[in-house]
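Render this sequence as a predicted structure.
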Amino acid sequence: MGKADQAAWEANAQFWDEQMGPDSNRFHREVVRPLANRLLAPRPGEHILEAACGNGNYAAYLAGQGVQVTAFDYSPAMVALAKARQRRYLKHIRFLVADGTSLAELQAMAGPFDKAVCNMAVMDMAAIEPLFTWIFTQLKPGGCFVFVTQHPCFVTLTEQYLTPHSYDGEAIAGQPRLQRYYHRSLTDILGQCFASGFVLDGFLEGVYGPKERPDVIAVRARKPEKE
């Protein structure tokens, strides 16, 4: 991630934690989490990696299901807030600071993991190749990587679709700083899954509220049992 991206999330960390609270907002509760759960199917005893964990609410949910969690975010302020908010689960969650776009920082976190998940952060990453490639190497054979991200066909502030580009936007109304969004087409997103070695065996679209156009996609990318 760039320094400007990290600075924005450092500035927004306290506001984000307050807005999400202990249960996350309705969008996450009613759209993101159900989609992630449906594809991830967490089971007690599994070791699951969460990328871009925010204030740790989903990591805590997993820990409450008997899962051992390694969760990271590239905002030190956000990780500190997550540790404070989820202190009752710290025996089951290891919170770390790491940049998901830096292979060197990712490699400092050793697996293997049964599964991996990333909720609403792929669109915040300047590059996704390091994360996707590294997760593939760290998953056990047959393990899956589930990510939920904004729908590139319908959620954008520009008229471009096929050309990767970035723009500034607001995730929660009133946040102190705008954040940078990185648009990629479905071809680019799913193509990175294939390039990393994954096969896809799950795909869902989710909508918030009474409308037809979906807000998010949820993808399950699986590491084959035999390479």
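Summary. The helical segments are 3-20, 26-40, 57-64, 76-85, 103-106, 129-138, 186-196. The radius of gyration is 16 Å.
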